[in-house]
Amino acid sequence: MAINPVRKEWFTIVNPNAGNGKGKKDWDRISALLEKENIPIINKFTEKKGHAIEFTREAVGAGFRKFISVGGDGTLNEVVNGVFKQEYCPTKEVILGMIPVGTGNDWGRMFGIPLVYEGAVQVIKENKQMAHDIGLVTYYCGTEQEKRYFINIAGLGFEATVVKKTNKQKDKGRSNKAIYFYNLLTSLITRRNIKADIIIDGKKNTCKVFSINIGNGRYCGGGMRQTPDALPDDGLLDITVIKEMGRIEIIRSLKLLYDGTILSHPKVDGYRSTNLQVSSESVLYAEADGESLGHTPAEFSIIPQGINVVYGTKIIP
C-alpha cells in the first residue's frame, strides 16, 4: 500500500443539511473565519448518508491526519467510522475537531465547544488535544451482523425508537429539539418493556428493560444526561439500565434525565465496564451517536484512547 506524505491542511467535511440547512447556509461564514485565523483547509460537502465515512477513509489514504467535522453528532460519527475503517495509519495518529451545526450537538457540549462559530473556530486554532476512547457496537440487521463505532453514546430500546422516528423526520427536512421531545412523549404511548439478558463483566442479569444507554460521553438527545458521570478517556463504558417502568412513572422521572440524577432512581442501575452483551426476547433496536442501527443481539466494547480530539474545556473527574 502506497504511503502518501502527511498533509498540513485540515480536511473539513461539511454536512450541508445539518441544522435544517445551516451547514450549507453558514459555510461561507465559517470558511471565512477559518481563513481569518490562518487555518488551512480542504473541504468537501456530503450529499448522502455514509458520504463522510467514504470521504474520511479516502482522505486518510491521501495523507490527511487532521479533520474538522462541520455538522451534528451524526456527521461526527461518520467521520469517526471513516477513521476506524481505513488501513493507512494507526487511528491514534488522527486528530478530530468539530464545528457544531446540528440540532443536538451533544458531543460538543461536553467539551465546551461553542455554538457561536467564532468560538468554535478559536477552539480549532488553540488545538488543545486529548486522547479519546471510542466505543464499538456489533449488532444485527436481520440475519446479518454489522458493526459501528461511536464516540459519544449508544442506546438500546426506547431511546433508539425515539431516534428512529426523529431520523425519519430529518430525512424529510424536519428536525429540531422540539420534534425530538415530541417523539419522546408520543413513543411512550406504544412503548413496551422488553425482557433482556444483560451480561456485564461475565455476570448475567435477566430483567425487563425500558432502555439501556452506553456512553463515553454524558449528553444525548439535545441535553439529556443518560450516562451523567461518563469520562471520555478512562478506558471504560458507562452503562445505564432503566428497568421496567409505567408511563406515569417515566413522565414524572423525565427531569432526572436532564439534571444528571438519573442514577438515583430505584429502577435505574449504573455500571462501568469494558464490555456489555445484550440479547432480548423481542428485538431491542439500537442507535449510536443518534444514528439508527439494527437490533439485538448486540455487544458493546471499548477502544481506549483510540483517537485524538480537539477540545475547548476538559471534563474533570
Kindly describe this structure.
There is one protein chain. The protein is built from nine helices and 14 strands. It has 317 residues and is α+β, with helices and mostly antiparallel strands. The protein has two domains: 10-127, Probable inorganic polyphosphate/atp-NAD kinase, domain 1 (Rossmann fold, 3-Layer(aba) Sandwich), CATH 3.40.50.10330; 134-304, Tumour Suppressor Smad4. α4 links the parallel β3 (66-71) and β4. The protein is globular. The protein starts with 9 loop residues before the first strand and ends in a 7-residue tail after the last strand.
Q: What descriptive keywords fit this protein?
A:
317 residues; alpha+beta; Rossmann fold; Tumour Suppressor Smad4; 6-stranded antiparallel barrel; 9 helices; globular
How are the SSEs ordered, and which strands pair?
Layout: E1 10-14, H1 18-25, H2 27-36, E2 41-45, H3 51-61, E3 66-71, H4 73-84, E4 95-100, H5 106-110, H6 117-126, E5 129-141, E6 144-150, E7 153-157, H7 158-171, H8 177-190, E8 194-200, E9 203-215, E10 237-243, H9 247-259, E11 268-273, E12 275-280, E13 285-288, E14 291-310
Parallel strand pairs: 1-2, 1-3, 3-4, 4-14
Antiparallel strand pairs: 5-6, 5-14, 7-9, 7-13, 8-9, 8-12, 9-10, 10-11, 12-14, 13-14
Helix pairs in contact: 3-4, 7-8
Please outline what is shown here.
The protein is of the alpha+beta class and 317 residues long.
What is the string of helix and strand elements? EHHEHEHEHHEEEHHEEEHEEEE
Q: What spatial form do the alpha-carbon principal axes imply? A: globular
How many domain regions? Answer: 2
Overall radius of gyration: 19 Å
Structural class: alpha+beta
Please report which band the strand proportion falls in: under 5%, 5-15%, 15-25%, 25-35%, 35-45% or over 45%: 25-35%
- Return the CATH topology of the largest domain: Tumour Suppressor Smad4
- Poorly predicted ranges: none
Give me the count of strands: 14
In the sheet with the most strands, the strands line up as 7-9-8-12-14-13
Distance between the termini: 42 Å
- Our count of helices gives 9
CATH architecture annotation of the largest domain: Sandwich
